[in-house]
Write a structure and sequence with these properties.
Number of strands: 0
Radius of gyration: 50 Å
Helix content: 55-70%
Structural class: mainly alpha
Strand content: under 5%
Number of helices: 2
Order of helices and strands: HH
Shape: rod-shaped
Amino acid sequence: MDTTPQQSRLPRSATTRAPEPRPVAISQTKPDTNPESQTNGHGQVANTALAAHLNTERSSTPDTPGTVRTISGFDWDDLEVRFERALAGVNEHEQGLLAEFEALVKYFNVWASAASAHDNERATKRLRTRTQFVQLKEADLEKKKQYYEQVMQAFQSAMQLLNQA
């Protein structure tokens, strides 16, 4: 079987680029409001402690204050190459298993045909034995028939002699 790695079915663009990061704006709390009583758009009290923690996690560079740190680009081509390499390894393993299975099937077929031939030979011998047994019984029955016919002839002869006397 063919063990070459298959081409990916995913469309591949001529130039693969990482998506551009999107800036996220953070609203600052107004100094005249109570930070613990701020509500979100659904009328629920917002977790201001979490918002303060997120503010410290954000980038505070002077050129982009309050934006998310830039996420480094991901090498999608490398991912696809690793994926195809892994698939090729799995395909090779599968081919090995199939070859082993085919060899085992050959052994099974040899065993099955040998067992079948042996069973056929035994069945033929059983048939011969039964045929011989039936033929012997038929011969015995024929001898008994001839014996009883002779006995009947003897009785008939004796009856004729008695009738004549």
